[in-house]
Design a protein that fits this description.
alpha+beta; OB fold (Dihydrolipoamide Acetyltransferase, E2P); 6-stranded mixed beta sheet; two-stranded antiparallel sheet; 10 strands; 38% helix
Length: 196
């Protein structure tokens, strides 16, 4: 019993104290380079389109590479361990919140475009706020712009999704999701035991 108490104390000491009034950030589960889940809510980044998870691009030497997987990795790098805050603009046909999201003070969609792992979407009746950022990435040959690629929209048309396929989750994503869920559960338990 003493070991359990010490373990709980150690866990709570790592958690934010009462002076920190914010809630613990929700775990982020990435689907691909422009969509993710925060808790039970699904989001798609406003104004951009990243390559589909299984999409491949071609580098400057003509060699194929997994740009869809790399775009998801880039989104993970941009978000890092920062909490994600989103302002919902609309809802898409899949029920996802289309939103402008920030992590660590950065506009996540803009950073994806800047890195060359997302393209801008033409907005009906308005100018896309990331167009100048895309022009820079293209001129500097960053990410996908270093070679050739189908726009994500064209790739989806050429590779229709099988309705039986669900969202794919890599073993690494599963492990991160489970570890985050376990950590959150341990924090809740430790706080309830110690009355914080």
């Amino acid at each position: 019993m003493l070991r359990v108490a010490w373990f709980a104390i150690a866990l709570v000491s790592l958690a934010p104290g009462k002076a920190d009034a914010r809630q613990d950030p929700l775990p982020v589960r990435l689907a691909d380079g422009d969509s993710f889940a925060l808790g039970r809510e699904r989001y798609r980044l406003y104004g951009i389109d990243a390559p589909e998870l299984h999409q491949e691009c071609t580098d400057a030497k003509g060699k194929s590479w997994a740009c869809g997987t790399r775009a998801r990795s880039e989104l993970r790098r941009i978000i890092g361990t920062d909490p994600v805050r989103c302002r919902i603009i609309s809802t898409d046909r899949y029920g996802r919140n289309v939103a402008i999201c920030h992590a660590g003070g950065r506009d996540v969609a803009e950073e994806m475009v800047r890195a060359g792992f997302a393209t801008v979407i033409d907005q009906r009746g308005s100018d896309n706020p990331y167009r100048a950022t895309q022009a820079e990435a293209r001129a500097d040959k960053r990410g996908m712009w270093a070679g050739t690629f189908d726009t994500p929209r064209d790739w989806r048309r050429a590779h229709p999704r099988d309705p039986e396929d669900g969202a794919t989750e890599t073993p690494g994503d599963w492990l991160i999701r489970k570890a985050t869920d376990l950590w959150q559960a341990l924090l809740v338990w430790a706080r309830s035991v110690l009355g914080r």
